[in-house]
Amino acid sequence: MNAIRPRLLILGTGFASFSLVKAIDVDSYEVIIVSPRNHFLFTPLLPSTTVGTIEFRSIIEPIRTARRNIRFHQARCVRLDLENNIAHCEGFFRNTPFQLEYDLLVIGVGMVSNTFGVPGVDQHAFFMKELADARAIRQRIIECFERASKPKRDLDEVRMLLHFVVVGGGPTGVEFAAEMHDFARQDLSRWFPDLMPYVKITLLEARNDILSAFDVKLSKYALRHFRRGGVHVRTGCQVAEVQENAVVLNTGENTPCGLVVWSTGIAANDLVRSIDVPKGPLQRLVTDRDFLVVGTRNVYAIGDCSILADQDLPATAQVAQQQGKHLAKHLNRKARRMPTKPFRYRHMGMLAYIGEYRALADLKNVKGRGFTAWLFWRSAYVTKLISMRNKILVAQNWLTTFIFGRDISRF
Ligand SMILES: Cc1cc2nc3c(=O)[nH]c(=O)nc-3n(C[C@H](O)[C@H](O)[C@H](O)COP(=O)(O)OP(=O)(O)OC[C@H]3O[C@@H](n4cnc5c(N)ncnc54)[C@H](O)[C@@H]3O)c2cc1C
After folding, report:
1. 317 lines ligand 1 (CB under 6 A)
2. Ligand 1 and 381: CB distance under 6 A
3. What global pTM score does this model have?
4. Terminus-to-terminus CA distance in the chain, angstroms?
5. pLDDT tens readout for residues 329-345
6. Which candidate in 34, 103, 217, 221 could, as Cys together with 6 as Cys, close a disulfide (CB 3.0–4.6 Å)?
7. Which residue's C-alpha comes closest to atom 35 of ligand 1?
8. pLDDT score at 153
9. Which atom of ligand 1 is nearest to the CA of 316?
10. How confident is the model at residue 2 (pLDDT cuts 50, 70, 90)?
């Protein structure tokens, strides 16, 4: 192995960084990874874990087992000294500070949930970004049912506990509402039959439609499907405050509920905000087509936290993954002094699960919906899962859920 390999410091273990790590030439670079998460998370299936359709460990892949000859530190980068090529970090467990020097830096730290400054969101709403969020949601759902089934219950309290509110009608909010609806209909109805008349799922969206990035016909189909299935969709509806057991709309209407899932978009995290370079919309780091951050010589940015100077791509897993792969190829070729080509994005289409074995498939030449699209959705995601272990576990979880139903234990 070459002893004078340049030190390549990669921040993050998400879609962008993980695909870079998988493809980078470790003989050409000394690869050091820093992330508060020691695993990759397949977020498209995260909503399914909130109700137990899929188990948590089935959609993660440890970074250490994904690639040999890398160094990993479970830590958070808190500040970058771009002048001196130093990353200031804090250990994940005890916040112990340490510094790492680099020759090349890749920032793939993603974004955080955007609260839009709405009061009470941080304190009372549940986000859906990490496995810990999904686990907290799952515990809260079961808690609401267990509390609602206590003897001599007050019916207003039962209605409050069993009202599940989702804020945000994008794919994540829609998929959670769909999974929650399936869970209630297919499993909870068997074990809490007397509570079913009180169960309500509400989806609040500020725009006039849901899934606005999808083809209009598909988005209208999803709306009709939800309304037929009993999910209360309220469009043109803005949340002014989230309280401990209620959502307050900007009309002043107070809606009691047992759970609020907040999924309204993304914002830059503290690290990205602190970097002193020209920024794009949402404070994303502006890059060229090889992901070199504008105004720097040796700093690259990929995934949600970055934006191309000449093209506004959506913040999605497929964009992040293609960018990570491209950067690996670019750096590998650069190390061998071979010519490189600028990044070109290939859009593969969009998929969303809408409940009751139905999905939407908005592909380049095909607009599919219903059961066939659901079969496609499932096969596409099994194919896209990173490892064979994940593929087997997810397929197994789908089968056991189908045969035995979802687990309703709380622990
Ligand atoms: C519930 C959900 C469902 C989704 N479904 C889809 C879908 O179906 N299709 C689709 O295309 N996209 C989907 N997305 C979007 C997709 O997940 C993101 O676009 C994608 O994860 C972005 O990849 P990334 O690598 O930029 O960031 P992320 O995957 O968010 O990874 C960021 C990484 O950086 C780490 N990090 C954060 N801060 C620091 C720091 N200070 N120092 C070091 N490391 C740090 C994090 O721990 C994480 O490992 C979904 C997102 C969610 C939340």
Report:
1. yes
2. no
3. 0.96
4. 48
5. 999 999 999 999 999 99
6. 103
7. 12
8. 85
9. 19
10. low
Whether residues 256 and 127 fall in one domain: yes
In a domain, 376, yes or no: no
Q: Which of 315, 335, 355 finishes a domain?
A: 335
- Does residue 279 fall inside a structural domain? yes
Q: Which atom of ligand 1 is nearest to the CA of 324?
A: 25
The mean pLDDT of 187-213, rounded to a whole number, is 96
Same domain, 86 and 175: no
Query: Please, which contacts does 132-135 make with residues 24 or more away whose CB atoms are closer than 8 Å?
Result: 133/46, 134/46, 134/47, 134/49, 134/50, 134/56, 135/49, 135/56
What's the domain count of the chain? 2
Same domain, yes or no: 126 and 259: yes
* Domain of 200, in residue numbers: 121-264
- The structure tokens 């290939």 sit at 346
Decide whether any atom of ligand 1 lies within 6 Å of the 334 Cβ.
no
For residue 113, report the distance from its CA to the centre of ligand 1, in Å: 10
Strand partners, 106: 10, 300
46 Cα nearest atom in ligand 1: 1
Residue 260, ligand 1, Cβ within 6 A? no
Question: What spacing in Å lies between the alpha carbon of 281 and ligand 1's midpoint?
Answer: 18
Pocket test for ligand 1, best of 10, 11, 13, 15 (most atoms within 8 A of CB): 15
Looking at residue 411, its pLDDT comes to 87
